[in-house]
Amino acid sequence: MAFKICLWLSLRCQLCIAVVLFFAEPAAAWWMWTPGDTVDNVGYKPKQPIAFSHQLHSEEHKIQCEYCHAGARRSPVAGIPPLNTCMGCHKFVATAKDPIKFIAARYQANQPIKWTKVHDLPDFVRFSHQVHGLAKISCQECHGKVEKMGVAVQKAPLQMGWCVDCHRQKKASIACLTCHY
Predict the structure, then answer these.
(1) How far apart are CA 119 and CA 138, in angstroms?
(2) Residues ≥6 apart with Cβ < 8 Å to 143
(3) How far apart are CA 85 and CA 56, in angstroms?
(4) Of the candidates 71, 81, 72, which has an alpha carbon nearest to the alpha carbon of residue 142?
């Protein structure tokens, strides 16, 4: 009799856990990411500390994305370039311009510039620039023609469906654990 009671309680407990997980997972995802984040915010162009021109650097001066965003090929995060990357050129180039004076002052004071992310995925999404770079996905496929942009703007919706469509087209995995923790 005790075995039947334990079995009944065990099944009931498993059902309770299943119900809780069924409702708790979407609630947790909603809590971790709420509308207003930059996902699906095509056209998002936050105000930045200086008007950095990707067009000037990428198109006119032919600086490759990976020169400044060095992590793109070797880590999950492309990264914002440290000031020493900027100062590699700007110790000598355009030193009299106000934005460069601002950068140089921050560099001398060892204070990073606080940029606002343009492309920001929810914390529950695992995205690796390295994997996409090694798969020969160009920066422009997700970020748009940044080399034509004065200021970086979000061009893609970055929604799950948009990513899944791309994965299907390129015959990449669409298993949940590919992109979600």
Answers:
(1) 16
(2) 119, 152, 155, 156
(3) 16
(4) 72
- Nearest-CA neighbor of 105 among 79, 87, 88? 87
Supply the pLDDT for residue 83. 95
- The sign of the dihedral angle between the CA atoms of 33, 36, 38, 41 is positive
SS3 40: coil
Sequence-ordered list of residues with C-beta below 8 angstroms from that of 141, at least 6 positions apart, any chain: 166
The answer to whether residues 143 and 129 touch, using CB atoms and an 8 Å cutoff, is no
Query: Tens of pLDDT along 80-123?
Result: 999 999 999 999 999 999 999 999 999 999 999 999 999 988 88
Q: For the beta carbon of residue 133, count every other beta carbon within 10 angstroms.
A: 19
Tally of CA atoms within 13 A in the half-sphere of 151 that contains its CB: 13
Helix residue ranges per DSSP H, 135-171: 139-143, 160-169
Look at the alpha carbons of 161, 167, 171, 173 in this order and tell me if their dihedral is positive or negative.
negative
Residue 146 main-chain phi, psi, to 5 deg? -60, -35
Q: How many helices (H) and strands (E) does the chain have?
A: 9, 0
CA-CA-CA-CA torsion for 125, 131, 83, 110, nearest 10 degrees? 60
Rounded Cα–Cα distance for residues 72 and 13 (Å): 46
